[in-house]
Task: structure prediction
Amino acid sequence: MSWEWARMSEPDNPNPAFIFALAGSLGAVMFSSWMYLSYAVAWLALCCVLSALRRRTIAGVIETAGGAFYIGLPAAIFVWLRDRAPEGLETILALFAIIWASDVFAYFGGKIIGGPKIARGLSPNKTYSGIVSGIIAGAAAGLGCGILFHVDPQYHVAWLIIGAVIAFTGLMGDLFESFLKRRFGVKDASRLIPGHGGVLDRIDSLMAASLLVGAALAFGPRATALLFGTGL
Result:
């Protein structure tokens, strides 16, 4: 992902941006794996600043610093979520289930139902019907997670809402990545995955959802016990 961002944002000289983004992301993931999320953010910020000092325009600074955060922070938070006791595994499985369901049904819903485009200038194939289909599928996946985790039935509605919100966030993350690609004038982040583009093209929804869930759990660490029931 660091390489994909570097080649999109600085195609004429991607190596410096790649090195700083990679160093920042790997360091942030390492600190996060030790549950030092604040250190992860601080290290990532340092690498962002050092990389941004190379640029001579405001747009260049934002692209370089913002890109390193865009890559490194979701990765660090994802690891932090997995290692977070006692429901780290359930959190990650719920994220996967909701995002995968949302992406699949958004694609097929848009193809089958069709209708008005949501942002023709950013992504000509995305439709309102696809967004709605993805949100409904995410809500259903959220409810499925609540049942799988043996949550008290009174919290099933909460899981429906959680699934819908995470799905919507993921879909907006996908749309945001489309905006970035249009900004840099590229069709795909890379050609690493034949027929699917790059890694950023595949997990942009998961990155956005990880940021949302990480923020929610960071500010409400004791609010999740009831939502995860007895777990798996």
